[in-house]
Design a protein that fits this description.
Chain A has 116 residues and is α/β, with parallel strands linked by helices. Helices cover 20% and strands 44% of the residues of chain A. Chain B has one domain: Purple Acid Phosphatase, chain A, domain 2. The chains are: A alpha/beta (116), B alpha+beta (271).
Chain lengths: 116, 271
C-alpha cells in the first residue's frame, strides 16, 4: 500500500472540515411548503451572499420552481431538500409549486427578493 | 362542406366570458378568422376547455351557467361543427372523491345536450391530477388516444394524470408507435399544471407545418372556452421549460405538447 493510501483518510477529513466551514458561513433559510402556501412567502437575500434554502413539506409532495434562477426541485414528505443560491443580480424572482396539489395549487407561490 | 364560420358567429362565442381562439390548421394561428375558400374536404371543429364544472367563487359568479351557455352557443351555430373536443379541466378539482365523480356525471349530463354527436375529451389537471386519472377514466375513457378525421391524425396526450406533469415512457412509446406511419403536420401545445404569477393563456398553436398532401386544403378551426374562471385563476406552464416545439423523444421535456399529423383516415386508436 502506497503512501497515498495512508494519506487518504487525512485528506478526507480535511475535505469534510472545509465543507463544514463553508456550510457554517452560509445562511440557512428554512422554507416550509403546505397546501397552498410557502412560508415564508417572501425570501430576502443579498447579492453575493450565498444562502441555503432548507425546503420541507408539512403535508404532501410539492414542487419548488424558480424559473429565472433555473431551480426546479421537488419537496418530498419526510425529507429535507437543500437548494444553494448565490444571488448575482438584484431583483425579484417568482417561485411556485409545480406538483398539482389541489384547488389552491395555482396560488401556491412566493418571491425571492435579492437586494443590492 | 360547410362554409367557414363568419367572424360574427365566432365573436358571439367569444362573448361567453372566456371563449378565445386557439389554433387553426388552415394557415396559422392568427388566420382563424380569415375567410378562406371552402373545399370539399374542409371541416371545422369546436374546442371547449376549462369549464371547471363545480367551481364556486368570485372570479366567475356565473360558473354554474357558462357551460350550459357554451353548449347552447355551439348548438346555435348556423353550421354544425364536425366534432367537439373538450381539452381539459372539465371539472374543478376537489379532494372529495365522491364529489369529483358527481361533478363529472353532471358535466356529462350537460354536454349530452350538444347536437354534435362526435365528442372527444382529454383531461386537465383539475380532473385527473389528484387520483392519477382514475375518476376521469371511469367517466370519459382513456386519457390518451388518437383518432383520424378527413386525413388528419389527432393524438391526445395526457400530461396531467401525473401531478408533476410527466408524460412518461409508456405513453411516449405508445405515441411513437402511433405516429410512426405518419408524416409531420402540426404541433399544438396546451398549458399544463399551473404556474402562479402568470396570466392565463389558452391553448396555443406553437408550430404548424404542412407536409401531408392528404390534408391540403383542409380548413380546421377551433375555439377555446374558459367560462368557469377568470384569467388569473390559471397559469400557463413555464415557457422556460419548453421554449420551442418538441421533436421526437425530447417531447418528454415538454409535456404540454400535442401533435397532429396528417395521415390515412381510419378509426380511433386507443392505447
Amino acid at each position: 500500500m502506497g503512501a497515498q493510501w495512508m494519506l487518504a483518510p487525512f485528506l478526507a477529513l480535511l475535505l469534510v472540515a472545509a465543507n463544514a466551514d463553508v456550510a457554517a458561513q452560509e445562511k440557512v433559510i428554512p422554507v416550509t411548503a403546505e397546501r397552498f402556501k410557502f412560508t415564508p412567502g417572501v425570501i430576502e437575500v443579498k447579492v453575493g451572499v450565498p444562502v441555503v434554502l432548507e425546503l420541507t413539506t408539512l403535508d404532501r409532495k410539492h414542487g419548488f420552481q424558480v424559473p429565472d434562477l433555473k431551480i426546479d426541485e421537488t419537496i418530498e414528505p419526510g425529507r429535507v431538500t437543500h437548494v444553494r443560491i448565490v444571488p448575482d443580480k438584484a431583483g425579484t424572482y417568482d417561485f411556485h409549486c409545480t406538483v398539482f396539489c389541489g384547488s389552491g395549487h395555482e396560488e401556491m407561490a412566493g418571491q425571492i427578493v435579492v437586494s443590492p | 362542406m360547410n362554409e367557414p364560420k363568419g367572424r360574427r358567429e365566432f365573436m358571439q362565442l367569444l362573448g361567453l366570458g372566456g371563449v378565445v381562439f386557439a389554433s387553426g390548421l388552415a394557415g396559422a394561428c392568427t388566420n382563424i378568422l380569415r375567410k378562406s375558400v371552402a373545399q370539399e374536404d374542409d371541416f371545422f371543429f369546436v374546442q371547449l376547455s376549462d369549464s371547471h364544472w363545480g367551481f364556486k367563487g368570485p372570479p366567475n359568479p356565473e360558473a354554474a351557467n357558462t357551460l350550459r351557455q357554451a353548449v347552447a352557443a355551439v348548438n346555435a351555430l348556423p353550421s354544425a361543427p364536425d366534432f367537439v373536443v373538450f381539452t381539459g379541466d372539465l371539472t374543478h378539482t376537489t379532494d372529495d372523491e365522491a364529489e369529483r365523480r358527481k361533478r363529472m356525471r353532471e358535466f356529462k349530463a350537460i354536454v349530452a345536450d350538444l347536437k354534435t354527436p362526435v365528442q372527444h375529451y382529454m383531461p386537465g389537471e383539475h380532473d385527473a391530477s389528484l387520483d392519477w386519472g382514475k375518476a376521469y377514466q371511469e367517466n370519459f375513457g382513456p386519457t390518451h388516444y388518437s383518432f383520424d378525421y378527413k386525413g388528419i391524425h389527432f393524438a391526445v396526450l395526457d400530461n396531467v394524470s401525473d401531478p408533476q406533469a410527466a408524460i412518461g415512457d409508456t405513453q411516449m412509446d405508445w405515441l411513437l408507435a402511433d405516429l410512426k406511419p405518419l408524416r409531420p403536420e402540426a404541433i399544438w401545445r396546451r398549458r399544463g399544471t399551473g404556474q402562479p404569477g402568470t396570466a392565463a393563456k389558452p391553448s396555443t398553436c406553437s408550430s404548424i407545418g404542412r407536409t401531408s398532401p392528404s390534408s391540403t386544403g383542409t380548413s380546421t378551426r377551433s375555439i377555446t372556452s374558459g367560462p368557469a374562471r377568470s384569467r388569473t385563476m390559471r397559469r400557463r406552464r413555464s415557457s422556460s421549460r419548453c421554449p420551442r416545439p418538441c421533436r421526437s423523444r425530447s417531447a418528454r421535456r415538454c409535456p404540454g405538447t400535442r401533435r397532429i399529423r396528417g395521415g390515412d383516415s381510419g378509426s380511433a386508436r386507443s392505447p
